[in-house]
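Dear Dr. H.,

I hope your travels went smoothly. While you were away I took the liberty of generating a structure for the chain from your last submission, since the lab meeting agenda had it listed for discussion. I wanted you to have the full record in hand beforehand rather than looking at slides cold. The sequence, exactly as received, is reproduced here:
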Amino acid sequence: MLQARKRLIDSGKPNWSLAILVPTKKMTRLVSDVLREPFGQVPSIGHTAAVDMDGPILAAEIVAFLLQQGRHAGHFDEFLDLLCSYYHGRSGAAPTAGDLTEAARLNAALGKWNLCLAEGKAPPNNSVLNAIAVVYATALDVGLTGDPDGDWAAIRAALEVDGCARLQAVAETFATCACSNAAPSFGRAYLKIGEIPAAISMPLLSRGNPSCRGISPQRTSRKPAWWS
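The corresponding predicted structure, in token form, is as follows:
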């Protein structure tokens, strides 16, 4: 790639372009991280990564929702609704059968969950929502600083903590924004979910971003107040 780039530069031709094709969104982000960070004697290489934005935008709505740190009744239900929307839409206009099944499973589990709470019972020990609820509670307890870069990164890091593969996948999808030029879209998602000042812009939250380093929120086993 570097040799091809050098040949194009040396040719003196204007408006040239060079593409790197990779099979997955995750690999797109990893390659973008490598190009963005200088390594050895190779400088940072300016580039634009092209990825489908349906999943990252829906994941950003989940992160933006958690940034509000709402505690009202029904907040967990609203969170689950966003998670189901993520599964319905992360593949664009053609959701996979697996994603549709997952969304239906979460909806059914939420119905049983709320029925138990209404009857004064604890949710089932084998509920698919147990791991989600613990990480959700952890995210609500993240100490926000008011710095957009740090707060977005802190919520993402909370979702990445081991314990819930579903929310880890949301965090991984959200991280795709690091290599997409989607800041305006994510900014709109932030404003759509929470009434956040318009001056806030969406940061680049790759693992190579210095603002993300050193953020490792402690996992908590605390259950939400409504989970008796």
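Two observations you may find useful: DSSP finds nine helices and no strands in the chain. The longest helix spans residues 97-118.

With kind regards,
E. W.
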